[in-house]
Amino acid sequence: MKPYLKWTAISLGSVVAIAHIGVLGHLVRREPDRIQVPTINIPRGTPYSSYKIEAGKDGYTIEYKANDPAILESQRSLSLDKNKKGLFGGGTEMRREWRRDQFTAEGTRNIGGVAGDGEGKLTAKEEECLVADAGARSQGAMAGSAIAAGVGVPAVMNIPYIGWLAAGWVSLLGNNIGSSAGSLVNSAISDC
Description:
The chain is of the alpha+beta class. It is built from three helices and five strands.
């Protein structure tokens, strides 16, 4: 065999051997196929939206709540303990108050029960009670103002420097008390 053929065969064999070793090394160190994660377009909802996504070998599922939580809760508590001796004797006050309110996402407070006929309209009885209460408050306010003007205003008008101001306070006080009394009498009479 001729020497140049010999060197050509050795060179060609070396290149093929190195290529095989490289391919074998690549196959041995090859990482397993990576799982392609799908692109999920999450729906854009309200600020109170929640999502739950579960993915597995067979696919994925999305649980979407557009208004979660649908009802918001607020809790308040007040605890007051007074054991202070006052000017006219002992005074012990112990008050505990706890309030829990529920709100919708729009900010409306849930007061329980049914709200009218489902469309926010008043029933006939509720409308009748509302009109009667407004009339009773108006009549009570006029009566309270008249009584305060006849009895209270002349008594406080002679106070030096602030008599005119005290007369206005007495008139407003009579108006407010008369309005509240008219509403109470109406609720007792008309069963509202």
